[in-house]
Amino acid sequence: MSEQTISGTASAARRHGDDDVRLAEQGERWLATGLSCEPADRAGAEAGVRIAYALAGLPAPKHILWLGSPAAGALGVAMLRTGQRGGRRDEHIRRALEAQGARPGELDLGRSVRPRVRTRPWAQARAALMTKLGGTGFARHWAATARRPWQQLTDQLATPLRTRIDADLAGRLSARAGQTEQVAELPQAAREALLDAIGGQHDAAWLAAFDSHPDVDGLARVAGSAGWWWAFEHVAVLTERPVAVHRDNLGRLHHGDGPALSYPDGFGLHVWSGMPITAEVAAELPHLTVERIRAEGNAEMRRVMLEHFGFDRYLRESGASKTQSDECGTLWRVTLPGDEPLVMVEVLNSSPEPDGSFRTYFLRVPPTIRTARAGVAWTFDLTEEEYVPLQQT
Q1: How far apart are CA 49 and CA 122, in angstroms?
Q2: InterPro entries under this entry (predicted)?
Q3: If DSSP codes are grouped into helix, strand and coil, which group holds residue 269?
Q4: Which runs of consecutive H residues, i.e. helices, occur in 146-231?
Q5: How many alpha carbons lie under 13 Å from residue 229 in its C-beta half-sphere?
Q6: Helices 120-145, 3-35: crossing angle, 10 deg rounding
Q7: Which of 33, 53, 92, 213 is the most buried (most CB within 10 A)?
Q8: Are 232 and 110 in contact (CB under 8 A)?
């Protein structure tokens, strides 16, 4: 291979490396947009809406309305579509609409223009980038820019949010089973409205791949300024961004002291390590007892309670049985009603703490484990025979 060829190969590798860094930084910027808890930039968002309509070949909406959360947005759209005013729990939404001159039953939304405003520009931007980069190049570009924002925003945030709103609305329908069709009309219309929602800031999950592409300019401006929104012929309904987003080190929604995701109108999601929980369970977490955990009939909720309470504390306070002990530690076991037993290995850390003491750890292991040695080996993905403690560093 000639020196010129080697030099060219090295130069191309550097370019690819520089591109990867730049694209990763682009993805992180959009991820930050998707996680923003700043108050909506209403003027910027409304300008973005008008640009999105213009790019779709549509006149600007006659009315742009604002509501406090995606849940309020879905119900607000349903009120305007059906003319239903809702009950006491919906009063804040109705008042917000009326304060903006939008009384349910008196404002014509027109048909949904989401396919033209959101779906078509996305497809056009994707096709243009695919033509420019080719299949392999596009896949690399997507992985560098959008893979992480998609996982963090769509999978960990937007999907649980949509699921929770839909479940709440479905619960309202169930509670009203057997009542008049008119009473059920509002929650059903709100569930249907969820299908028309545009992600706003959560569209950053895919906008990261199409940074500065002209076809998505309007969508990008709204994403940088507001939360979920709805596009109709005559009306656009926009919503605020959250006031708080709490996540764990894996990016999952997670908070043990209030909602993990909360909006300025009071709507929120209570979540523990990515597991949605009810507000009632969330309120109990700081005050749990062994008896309350045992009494919980839902196995998933009991596991949330155990994590918050602390497995080692539960062992101490629940009368767990010491089933075996060896040079690797002590094996503890306690029965959980309607669930697999809780089995943990108590081990002493071989490295001293700064004060010279040695810390005790509890490692949860499968209920099939019968010795402490086998339990510690399992944490290293080894069999009991393969595990040689003196060779571990």
Answers
A1: 15
A2: DUF6745 (IPR046633)
A3: strand
A4: 147-149, 159-175, 181-194, 204-207, 217-223
A5: 37
A6: 120
A7: 33
A8: yes
